[in-house]
Here is the input.
Amino acid sequence: MEMIQRARRLRETDAIRRMTRETRVSSDSLILPFFIKEGKDIKTPISSMDGHFHYSPDRVHEAVEEAMEHGVDKFLLFGIPEEKDPVGTQAYHEEGVVQQGIRAIKEKCPDAYIIADTCMCEYTSHGHCGILCGHSVDNDASLEYIAKTALSQVQAGADMVAPSDMMDGRVLAIRNLLDSHDLEQTLIVSYAAKFHSLFYGPFRVAADSAPKNTSLKNRASYQVDPTRYQDALASAFRDAKEGADLL
Here is the structure.
């Protein structure tokens, strides 16, 4: 058989496969999540995530130091406060658990790159990602709280904020508030298309953030339906237009 093009030539040996790889995994690309629990001297296993722990703000730097010894220097922080309320006050409090954790990490590990998860679900008594109004999440009312949570996290020392709430307009609200406080260089990474999916189950256990409101049992009304890829692309495009630096 006369065959000029043979794709298998580039698959023949380990050397050529390594040379032609388009996707490469490096520790530079890895982000390690940490779950910070309010209190002191806490390091307890997370039942849903084998090998991961809840840390109190005074001990989270231990895990950061260990990770950095293995080449991972970027960390995404989630918070579990002792007290929750309908508007998630501890999310944007100056002495909130994540804010405490950020300062503690930056003091011990100034070279660590800190990304703060910016959402309300870990802090609200109903477990939803925004502010409830009757039997639904009030998108526009939630933007103020989400933006000031991001501002509080950055003022505590976060290098980047990651809004995961899926409220329409959240990126623009955050960008405007940060810029008004001379924080134009702070990056926003948008989850862009956070799907309504059971894959988030282990994280919801770890962050104690599962919905608890009996009239609104899940997040289907504001997270993306997994069957709607066009909605996901539109969400990413909108976030980029509003000032998201990463999607």
About this structure: Helices lie at 14-19, 60-69, 89-92, 97-108, 139-156, 170-180, 201-206, 229-242. The mean pLDDT is 94. The longest strand covers residues 74-80.
